[in-house]
Write a structure and sequence with these properties.
This protein has 2 helices and no strands. It has 66 residues and is mainly alpha-helical.
Length: 66
């Protein structure tokens, strides 16, 4: 997270929530597999969101220590 700017973190969180909502919209699981599927969808959505966020909102050169 230290490599991400504020805008990139917001996009990351939006993609995590959106992936979980879309998973719940199209797939329905029972029991513990529902938690695992939500975690997997959130992780994949977060990865995509982080990549997009870091491209759209790169961190400035002087912000390395924050």
């Amino acid at each position: 997270m230290r490599r991400m700017s504020g805008g990139a973190i917001v996009i990351f969180m939006v993609f995590v929530v959106a992936a979980i909502v879309l998973k719940n919209r199209f797939f329905e699981f029972e029991g513990p597999i529902n938690i695992a599927a939500s975690a997997g969808a959130g992780a994949l959505g977060g990865l995509i969101g982080a990549m997009i966020g870091m491209i759209l909102f790169p961190k400035k050169e002087g912000d390395e220590n924050e």
